[in-house]
Amino acid sequence: MEQSERTVIGVLGLGEAGGAFSAGLAAAGAVVRGYDPAVAAGPDLIAATSESDAATGADLVLSVNRSAVAVEAMESGIGSLPRGSVWADLNTASPEKKRRLAEIAEERGVPFADVAIMAPVPGPRLQVPLLVSGSGAQRAAELLRGFGANVEVLDGPAGLAATRKLLRSVYFKGMAASIVEALEAARAAGFEDLLRENIIADFTAAGESTVDRIVSGTYQHAVRRTDEMAAATEMLTDLGVTPTMAAASRDLHAHLNPHPR
């Protein structure tokens, strides 16, 4: 493919996600310059010695390290980007941090792409759904799609993709944490298989009306459910299970109750 012969992609962070993206891009024909101070670059990558080295000559940089070092990584590498290249941040960070990164890039005259990874990367690699927003979103999407990536461009500024991802995270990761805690408690009580069957049955029976029913019921029965989750919190404590999610549910229902007893 002609594009792959001329496209150079710098990847900062070669852990689970960065390593999978790097391998997928290299397999698709991209020239990948990878840098990670703790992980060696794979055989199909050009091993860079720093963020600046990875960005040198790159058409696109993918920062896939950690939110805590995203600003530092950008400041270390963005000066080496050729004119017209794009800096893309794929870290799970707050919308505010993404906007801060966009400001730094704008000060340097570099288009910025806020990229949200919407599913686990290992396995699907480039087929994992990506949401992209910001001034460099369209160009980043064009480059990544040229290698088979699954990218949806959002019409909006940096921070929009992060917002979309994190809103889903509140729901999905919160639900997952509650399930894990409930199964731990059920195991301690000797009913893990039964509860697992209940959970599977609930998921199987879910339909279009499920969300409306859950939301309306939560508000309507907030008083009773506050007491119910207080009892559940006490039970988990007695079982030796830390009631993190149960206590949070108790407190949320209490907050929703306009007339606490």
TrEMBL record:
Residues 186-255 form the Phosphogluconate dehydrogenase NAD-binding putative C-terminal domain. Pfam families: DUF1932 (PF09130), NAD_binding_2 (PF03446). Residues 9-135 form the 6-phosphogluconate dehydrogenase NADP-binding domain. InterPro entries: 6-PGluconate_DH-like_C_sf, 6PGD_dom2, 6PGDH_NADP-bd, NAD(P)-bd_dom_sf, Pgluconate_DH_NAD-bd_C. GO terms for molecular function: NADP binding. Gene3D superfamilies: N-(1-d-carboxylethyl)-l-norvaline Dehydrogenase, domain 2 (1.10.1040.10), NAD(P)-binding Rossmann-like Domain (3.40.50.720). This is NAD(P)-dependent oxidoreductase. It comes from Saccharopolyspora karakumensis.
